[in-house]
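Q: My collaborator sent me two sequences in one message, no labels, and asked for predicted structures for both. Can we handle them in order? The first one she listed is below.
A: Yes, handling them in the order given. First sequence, followed by its C-alpha cells:
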Amino acid sequence: MAFTVTQITAYLKNLLEGQPQLRNLEVEGEISEFRRVNHLYFTLIDRDARLSCVMFAGDMTLGMRCTVSEGLRVKVTGSIRVYPKGGAYQLYATRIEAVGAGAVNEQLLRLERKLRAEGLFDDAHKKPLPPYPKRVGLVTACPSAVLEDMRRVFRERNPYIQLVLSPCRVQGAGASQEMLRALHRLERAGVDVIIIGRGGGGRDTLFDFSDEQLVRAVYNCEIPVVSAVGHEINYLLIDYVADVQVQTPTMAAIAVAYSAEEFQATLVNSHSSLVKAVCRAIDGERERLAHMQQILRYVSPAEQLKRRRETLDRAKDRLSELTAKAVVDARRETAEAEREIRNSIRESIRSYRNRLDQWETGLKAMSPYRLLEQGYAFVTVDGRPVKSIADLPAGALMKGYLADGQFEAEVVSTQERPES
C-alpha cells in the first residue's frame, strides 16, 4: 500500500505536535541566518545541529526581549510544529531573550550606542602617534608571549627606545580594573605612547576590553593609546576609542618603534642638507656683502662727484656733436628745400602751360569762325540770330556774316525743309 506525501506529512505532523514535551519548550542556541520579512525567520545552531525557527509578527511585540542579531546567543520559547508545504519541522517561537554571552553582547550593543552618541568614537578626538618616541608604555600580561614578541620587535627596530612595563591580567575576573590601574600608572610615568595588548582568544575572553571604565579612561588619556588585541571579530569598544587600532601586538610594536637604521639615515641626510643649507647661506651673505660694498661705493660723495663730472663731459661732447650735426643737417635741408621749391615752380609752370595749351585748343575748336571757314554763314534779323525760317518773314532785311566779310539781303521767300 502506497502513501501520499500529504498522508506521510500529516502523520508526522500529528506525531510531533502530539508530544507534550515539544510544546512550550525552551531551546538555547546561537542565532544564524537571521532575516525579517514581516515575520522573523532565523536558525538556532550549536556545534552539532541546527533548528529552523519563525516568530510571527503578532508575537514580536511582547515576545522580543532583546535585539536579535547575527551571532547572539538566545533562549527561545515555543513549540515544535510541522510546516507541510515546506516539508520540514520548525520551532514556532513566542519569546526570545538573550542568555549567557548573548546577554553580554546585548549589553555591549547598548553601551556602544551610548558611547557613540556621546562622541567618544569620533575621529576628531584621535591623537597622532609621536614620530620619535623615547619611552613606550606596555599594558599587558607578564610573563607572556605577547610581551616577548613586542620586546623582540623593539630590540630589532630600535634598541634605544625605553620600554616601561605596567603588568596586569588581560582576562579573567577583575582584568579590566587591573588594566585600568596599569594605564593610570603609565600616565603618571610620563611615557610618549601606550600600547594595550594581548594575544588572540575566544569572544567570551575579550569582554574586559569593552569595559566602560576602561574605554572612558582610554578616551580621556592625554597620551596616544594603541589598541593591539589579537582577535578576528572587530567588536571591542577599546578599538573604537583608541587613537590607533592594529590587529596584533607585533604590528603595534612595528607601528610605534621607528627604525634606528632609518632614523640614522635620516640624520645623515639631515646633516648633509643642513651643511648644504649653511653653505648656501654663507654664499648668500657673501654675495649680499659684495652687493652692499658696491652700493656703498656707488653712494660715496667722491664717486657721485666723479659720475657727475663724467656725465657733464659726456653732455658737453654730446652737445658739440649735436650742434655740428644740426648745422650740417640745416644746410642739407636748406639745399634740399631750395631744390624742391625750384622743381615745384618749374613743374607748376609746365602744368599751367599745358593747361593753357589745352584751353587754347578747346577755344579754337569752339570758335564760330571755324564753322564760317567751312562755308557756313551766320544770319541775324534786327540783331537777333535766325534759328528758323519762321524768323524770316518776306521782305525782312537780314544781315549775314561769312569768314571773310558780311552782307545784307532782303527775304523774298522761304520754304520749309521737306520731311525725310
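Q: And the one she listed second?
A: Here it is, processed independently of the first:
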Amino acid sequence: MRYSKADRLIVIGAGITGLMTAINARLSGLDVYLLEKGKMPSGSSARIAGVLHSGARFAGWDDELAKVCFEEWKWWVSVLGKEEKKIGGYFLKTKTESDQYLESWLSSLKNIGIPFTEVENPYIGGDIKKENIDRFYFVPEIQINARKLLNKLLELAINLGVNYLPSSVIQEVERADGGYRISVRNKDTLKLEGFPVISSGIDIPEVAKIFGINVTSKVYQGSHILLNTDLTDLLEFVHKPGTYDLLIPSDLGTFITPTLVPYNGLTVSEEELAGLSQVLKNLFEIEPEVIGYMIAGRISISSPDSTLKGDYLAYTQDTILAWSNNYACGKRLAYAIADILGIKKALTAASLISD
C-alpha cells in the first residue's frame, strides 16, 4: 500500500513508537504531524525505569522475542553515547529457583549469541544476601534515562520538520480519500488531513474508538517502586519474566519493576506491596524502605489481530495501530509501518546521532 493523500502522516502519541515512526516517515520525505496529549512525551514510554533489554530477559521463555530484542539492542548500542547509557547488569540465580530453567536460559543465550559471563563474587551493593544467591551472570543490558532519550528524539523530530502538536485533543474524525480528516484542539482548532498511526500506548483502545475501530484489550499497570538501597548495577532474576524481578539503580534510589497486575486506576495495591516485601526480605539483609513509586502501563491487544510477532501492529480501516512490547523495538515498528505505507526505511543509527 502507498498512501497518496498529500503524503501526510498523522502520528497520535509521542512515545518511543510514535517518535521513531515520525522520524522515519519524515526522513522518507513525508509530511508528518505528531500529536501528544501532554506538553511533552508523558505516557508509559516516559515512565519506564530505563532498560533497553538485550533479550536475555526473555531467553529460555520466548526465544523469538529474545532475538528481536538482541537485534534492536545492538542497533541502540551504536546510537547511544557513553553519557546516555550504562551497559551491564547481573542476572541472579537464587537457591530457590530451578536449575532446569537456568540450563534452558544459558542454552538460549548461546544459541542467540547474547554475551554473558559467570562472575564469582561481584560487588552489587552491601545489603544483598549473597548467601541466598547461587549464581551471578554478567549480561550487557543497557540502562538509559528514558525521559532524556525521548526528549532527544523529540528535538530531532522537530529539527527534521515534524510538526509537533502538544496538548492535543482529537475532537472529530471523518473518512477522506485514502485517509482521514481530523479535527484537533490544540491552542487553536486545526483541521488535519492524512493517514493516521495510533501509537498512544494504553490509550490505543480509547483513541481507536474515535476512528470507529473496536480494540479488544487488557490493560495492566506496572508499578516502579522506589527503594533506598545502595545497588550499583541492574539486577534481574533467572526465571520467566513476571512479578518483582527487576531492580534498577537510579539517581533517586532503586526501582524494582514490574509488578504487573490488572489495571485498577494506576495505584499500588496492598497485595503488590505485600509481595514486594517478601522479595525484599529474601534478597536484602535489611529490608529497604519504600520511599515512593511511579506507574507505567502495559496493554495486551487481542483484536484486531497483530501482523507482527513480538510487538503489536495492525492495519485496519485505513488506520495503523502500533504498540511496542519492548521499549527498544521502536525502530522495528517504524520499519514495519514503513512496509505497510510503502515508504523507505530511512531511519539509521547515523540519523539519530547528533554532532
